[in-house]
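Entry 0007
Protein: DgyrCDS5311
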Amino acid sequence: MATTSRLIKKLDEAVINRIAAGEVIQGPWNAVKEMIENCLDAKATNILVVVKQGGLKLIQIQDNGKGIHKCDMDAVCERFATSKLTTFDDLSSISTYGFRGEALASISHVAHITITSKTANSQCAFKGSYSDGKLKEPVKPCAGTQGTQITVEDLFYNVPTRRKAIKSATEEYNKLYDVISKYAIHNSKTTFTLKKHGENAAIRTQSGSTVDNIQNIYGGEVSRELIKVEHHDEQYKFKVQGHVSNANYNAKKCILLLFINHRLVESSALKKALESVYANYLPKGSHPFMYLSLEIIPQNVDVNVHPTKHEVHFLHEEAIIESVQRVLENVLLDSNKSRTFLTQAILPSSFGVSQKEEEKPKEVEKIYDHNLVRTDSKERKLESFISSQSSDIITSDQTCNGTKKERKVHLKSVLSLRAEVESDLNINLREIFKEHKFVGCVERKFSLMQHAQELYLVDVYELSRELFYQIMLYDFGNYGSISLEEPANIIELAKIALDLPEIGWTIENGPKVELAQQIDIVLRSHAELLFDYFSLEIDKEGNIISLPYLLENYIPPLQGLPVYILRLASDVDWTTEKECFEGVCKETSDFYAMGNGYEHLDQHQEKDWRWMTEYTLFPNFRNTLLPTNSMANHLIKLASLPDLYKVFERC
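Output (structure tokens):
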């Protein structure tokens, strides 16, 4: 009888593990999600993620959690090795993120892993390197802080097909950004930081409120339109809370951040149900922002459905979805009753067209009213409706020397201050200022500008103060100088300042003459530093000879010079380098800010500040300013053409 060879063979253990790893780790973003969940299980309050090439070359996650004991380091990357489960029945009450012991094991089969960890009771940290779930060599003691640092290098180095299937590092980075953003919003008491290797942080949240983190990541436009959702259902034993956008906000696509028992999941059924509610409030093609957290008793939830745990099943699913749907309906209905609508006059699109030109037939594509956008710099500003006089270029008795000393700055204090500005950059605001159109001045401290189809009221004082502060940092030691026609005596300036009501001088402060002399002593003792780094020159007699020239065609309001001199002497910490430089830069930017010291102006000066606002400050807001997150509070959206047309559509 003829025999045949076996066709079915058991796969090699390494192949089995890599196939399993491919199910759990679909890409760098998935590996980061798994490790972030481990950090949160370890009660971390600070999580730092550093990536290179979208996570394909490097992923490094560091937390300040409980850490891993030395005796557990050998098993931490083995499959189905976990501290969360003992028996199968434990699955019915699981409340942690990770529980099957597959995350680190799977990563170790498709990448090189190094883990450094320290517990609170350990004298030192311990470090181990892993491959295919096993330690490469015995664990070694090393220096380290409490918590765990996991370094993943060359992801999918041994799975070339998976590596080739990944389209681009940028796309993977965007997925990473999305995952970390969502966990940062849900875990508002934990600080999250995401940065590309060698670059500044792209995400940096602080321990605070959920709304603050939504504003930090998604922008002020979303955070200003949020409604709080909170409901406890006794019948089906679940709670729902979160924040959703009201009927004033709409986006091009639906954004749903859904957490069930604190695990980031997806639910197409719930998403579809909630969008159907918004369909009654938003125009066609518009979508909401929703962040919802459902807490269901663990016995009713099956988390062991998918290898990546991004899908869960739970009892009474349809009933719970309907209940959440009703909750959303109620909060939207309540918010709709108190809605307010802002109005604006439609700005004219052209002026001065002759009759002959109007009669010429033109074949142009029709632009509907709600899509009108200011695009021509020749369009009339608000001032043209007030006065027909043209603005003159600034004329002043001061002479400006704009020659800059080319000096490279390597001071750690200055570089640190620059880094603080860059780490707080708001990308959404940067885009708005980059593409804005100046509309006109409302008053000295406020102006109007337009971005796309939206009209904004801008706090010029606050923005110009930040602009000059950044110029002080980035042109540090290289300013030109404004030479005063007549030297200004420090003691006399100090006396003038002390006489001002806003300074709040009292008898208990001491005689004004003595205070003025003390101010003179402080500034003259630092005259060399002020002149060398800040182009603020003080002569031997205690007179101000020159001021820094920070911006072409911009002269600071000299009415504010006395207060500037007073605060420079009294409010700056002259004992520490970083605090000193920061203090001088901030006091100088306060002095230079538009709207400070412009209380009493003659007719010529009135034209000067309007000209400087439109032709000096706003172009620099567009090209130079790095808008920080706090500046969102100084930009108020007054009206949006699409929103106004939605109002009329409902009438």
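Curator remark: The chain has 21 helices and 24 strands. The chain has three domains: 13-208, 219-337, 399-637.
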